[in-house]
Amino acid sequence: MYQELIKKEKTLALIGLGYVGLPIALAFAKKVKVIGFDINIDRINLMRQGIDPSNEIEKSAFENCDIEFTNDLDVLKKANFFIVAVPTPVDEHNIPNLIPIQKASETIGKVIKKGDYVVYESTVYPGCTEEDCVPIIEKMSGLKMGIDYKVGYSPERINPGDKEHTISSIIKVVSGCCAESLDTIAQVYSLVVMAGVHKASSIKVAEAAKIIENTQRDLNIALMNELSIIFDKMNINTYEVLDAAGTKWNFLKFQPGLVGGHCIGVDPYYLTHKSKKLGYESQVILAGRVINDGMAEYVAKKILQHIVQFTGNIKEAKVLVMGVTFKENVSDIRNSKVADVVKELKLFSLNVHLVDPNANSKELKKEYGLELTTAIANDYDAVIISVPHNEYKLFDDAYFSALTKQNGLIADIKGFYRGKITSRPYWTL
């Protein structure tokens, strides 16, 4: 398979061209023949023009790529090595929503042939690939894993907005259903991953490795958030505490914050869901989730308390929220906890204005029923710097003073302006 791919006698396909799938597809397309498959024709048309719908990749990245973008199953049938990078979200009850990965498996089942390979990159609980996805492929195709085709799992490590830790520069975990498939999958990924590959002993091990990467971060951030709540009651600045503790060589440097996005706030639920099915109720992991999911309400209440103290009529109070994407320097608003903060504030009839240099107002309206403001006022009772985009780095004390009333609160969620705000009350996690 490897030799045939590099000779362009066979074709690699990427199924799902979001913020994970597209960069992987383009990286491979500089080495082998690639089919980029997505069910969204509008996204396909943009990518055919060299435009990334997620606004993560420059137009130049599409140059010198041997890739065909399509939503046509007949085109997909030409592929021999399939990589699946579709979303794996949770529903409103935090139960894993496997529909996208199940649909992708059905698609593969319709086009797979003897001798083909399938590698899943979507984040799932241990066992999902072999127990949930493979049976769908086999039912649709009539083929048997290990006999007619090979399966592997290689968890994605794409970090939106991060131009340093790219697919080529970070070690890639790979796994296969047998020794032969493991070696082949490792060879194929080595074409684009210059940092090297780590061969996991089984597909389940690779799935588990991915799920705990983000679970570990979630728990550490939850600890920081709980500490920030405690230290706030003690009138101690959390960041000053972390600076002091961070002087020890083995102190882990995490910070408090709103935990949103597609990974850290979602993946732990996949692990606890599987754990519950096996008869074990998670305690530590879910405790961390409770803390992090509750931070939006906590932040909103801190803002409200300040406004109640200094404003006679809450319904006349105005709040400016700076940044609505799920993290800094990206345009993605999905699973943004900033929206939760805004909704909490609006429960008390506060007039909330939103600005963000990277977000799209139409998408924000569609996703949350919120819109970006077109005109910033100069009499806010509070300004929340919720996402410290690079564009905000030029702002100073005078800028925020001009936006706010005399007792207007500057709520700096990530401590970006710590030590720089002197003319207004200042608060941070």
Description:
With 429 residues, the chain is α/β, with parallel strands linked by helices. The protein folds into two domains: 210 residues, NAD(P)-binding Rossmann-like Domain (Rossmann fold); 134 residues, NAD(P)-binding Rossmann-like Domain (Rossmann fold, 3-Layer(aba) Sandwich). The chain has 15 helices and 13 strands. The chain has an eight-stranded mixed β-sheet with strand order 3-2-1-4-5-6-7-8, sandwiched between helices. Strands 10-9-11-12-13 form a five-stranded parallel β-sheet. Helix 5 links the parallel strand 4 and strand 5. The protein is elongated, with a radius of gyration of 24 Å. The chain starts with a helix and ends with a strand.
The helix/strand series, from N terminus to C terminus, equals: HEHEHEHEHEHEEHEHHHHHEHEHEHEE
Low-pLDDT runs: none
Task: List how many beta strands DSSP finds.
Answer: 13
Number of helices: 15
Mean of residue pLDDT values: 92
User: How is the biggest beta sheet arranged?
Assistant: 8 strands, mixed
Distance between the termini: 52 Å
Q: What's the structural domain tally?
A: 2
The side-by-side strand order for the widest beta sheet comes to 3-2-1-4-5-6-7-8
Fraction in helix: 25-40%
